[in-house]
Amino acid sequence: METEKVNFNREWCGGTSIGCINGCSNNCKYCYQRAGESKNGHINPEDWKNEKMRVEKNRKTYYRKARTRYNAPVMIPPSHDITPYTLLETLKIIKMSLDVGNQVLIVSKPRLDCIKILCSELKDYNKFNIIMRFTICSTNSEVLKFWEPGASTFEERLESLKYAYNQGYRTSISAEPLIDPNVDDLVNQLKPYVTDSIWLGEVNKTSIRQKLSLNGFKNDIETQNKMTEILDWQTNDFWLDTYNRYKNDGQISWKGKLKVLVGLAA
């Protein structure tokens, strides 16, 4: 099997991403950005859910096409979401990036009202240059609510996916980190409305405990126990079995270290 060397942080966007907000109201327990800001002493982890505008970023105009590896799109936003509070400023950045000839990868745990506005506002752009990648790591809204307490339900994310698909946009899914073992259910429900790829990714076993601790859940017994349950089923055998079921499906992509596990990356 031919392999490639992969920079796991650049698989989607060649290293080019643009955001305009500090914090995220999704308040995901496993959030890597929240953990990083907490580790560096930039935030109290309990304040992460309070979104704050980065004014200096919003005043920047993007005059030229971004240089990305492999002609990858610019990812917007990288570490916050598109919420009612962030929608208009994020939309400005998306339009500026499209206006100078970039392809744009819009990443979100989608809220239907926001997606409807995005679809309407971007309708006059070349839709080939817009990919909407929605993060859906489980089809169980109770599971999503526990790990992503401020984010939308599965049902709303599915409706958002259907809406973007029916409006003629390129659509994609990120199921990273996977927090539910029912991969087949997830793929079967989402695949009819996906034009591009479904990315599957694992919980990072080497750092997840540290992330939970930095995010304020070190002594939260319920959260620690539920993470233990995920790590118990998310074994190498689980992923190898999943890979063998989907290795011939051109729409399924493998995120990060999974590529090494299944032999697609060195």
Notes on the protein architecture:
The protein is α/β, with parallel strands linked by helices. It has a single domain (8-261), classed as pyruvate-formate lyase- activating enzyme (Alpha-Beta Horseshoe), CATH 3.80.30. The protein has eleven helices and eight strands. A six-stranded parallel sheet has the order 3-4-5-6-7-8, covered by helices on one side. Strands 1-2 form a two-stranded antiparallel ribbon. The radius of gyration is 18 Å and the shape is globular. Residues 1-8 have low confidence and may be disordered.
Number of strands: 8
CATH level-four homologous superfamily name: pyruvate-formate lyase- activating enzyme
CATH topology: pyruvate-formate lyase- activating enzyme
Kindly report the average pLDDT value: 88
CATH class categorisation: Alpha Beta
How many helices? The count is 11
Order of SSEs, N→C? Answer: EHEHEHEHEHHEHEHHHEH
Q: What structural class is derived from the secondary structure elements? A: alpha/beta
Low-confidence residue ranges? 1-8
**Shape, per Cα inertia axes:** globular
Radius of gyration: 18 Å
Overall helicity: 25-40%
| Largest beta-sheet characterization | 6 strands, parallel
| Range of strand content | 5-15%
Instruction: Specify the CATH architecture.
Output: Alpha-Beta Horseshoe
Strand order of the largest sheet: 3-4-5-6-7-8
Number of domains: 1
- Terminal residue distance: 11 Å
Task: Set down the secondary structure blueprint.
Layout: E1 21-22, H1 32-39, E2 52-53, H2 55-58, E3 74-76, H3 87-99, E4 104-108, H4 112-121, E5 130-135, H5 141-147, H6 154-166, E6 170-175, H7 183-190, E7 198-200, H8 208-217, H9 221-233, H10 236-246, E8 252-254, H11 258-261
Parallel strand pairs: 3-4, 4-5, 5-6, 6-7, 7-8
Antiparallel strand pairs: 1-2
